[in-house]
Amino acid sequence: MELTDAVFVTKARSGDTDAYRVLVERHGRALFRLAFRMTGNEQDAEDVVQESFLRAYRQLGKFDERASFGTWLYRIATNYSLDLVRSRKRRSANLAPSDPEMDDPILSLPTGDPNPERMTLSSEVRERVAEAMKDLSATERTAFVLRHFEGMCIEEVSRVLDCQPGAAKHSVFRAVQKLRRALEPLVSPAR
Asked: Do residues 81 and 41 touch, judged by C-beta distance below 8 A?
């Protein structure tokens, strides 16, 4: 018999810290991936994960066991990630522009292809994607990350966003359209 999240939630509610540790181990890595993609920063992602698990633990009594613990946790992490991104935007509006490669560690990853032209194009694509992601609304960015990076179905995305599936699908669509427009100059033939 496989022990489900619901079993560990019930035990954790009774004060079993080892049961909550199992939930942290089960969901920690996925939560970090989500937070990193939302914030674009490893340190912020670690903060999001830690704060999300802390908030979930404090609110465990309010968790509805009919729902998925993972989806509930994703919603907490998504909301906290968005708060962090918004506060960072407010702070950065007051600061001088920085090097985009220093803000997003993904941009500094090697491409594995020694061809300089390919490396330049790959770097430009990553920069444009990172910039375009910043221009998405909070809902669009969240929906896109959950659908295309985390592989969630539209129904799961809608549960995390607390909206109807049609609205979630529309948010993903708008995000894809905006990203396509941002990348179009890179893939269009030279005239």
From this structure: no
CA distances from 114 to 121, 146, 170 (A): 12, 32, 39
CATH architecture of 1-95: Orthogonal Bundle (1.10)
Residue boundaries of the structural domains of the chain:
1-95
Secondary structure, 3-state, 2-33: CCCHHHHHHHHHCCCHHHHHHHHHHHHHHHHH
HEC states along the chain?
Answer: CCCCHHHHHHHHHCCCHHHHHHHHHHHHHHHHHHHHHHHCCHHHHHHHHHHHHHHHHHCHHHCCCCCCHHHHHHHHHHHHHHHHHHHHHHHHHCCCCCCHHHHCHHHHCCCCCCCHHHHHHHHHHHHHHHHHHHHCCHHHHHHHHHHHHCCCCHHHHHHHHCCCHHHHHHHHHHHHHHHHHHHHHHHCCCC
Pairwise CA distance, residues 36 & 125, whole Å: 19
pLDDT in tens, 69-112: 999 999 999 999 988 888 877 777 666 555 544 455 555 545 45
Length in residues, the chain: 191
pTM: 0.69
Report how far apart, in Å, the C-alpha atoms of 118 and of each of 121, 122, 180 are. 5, 6, 20
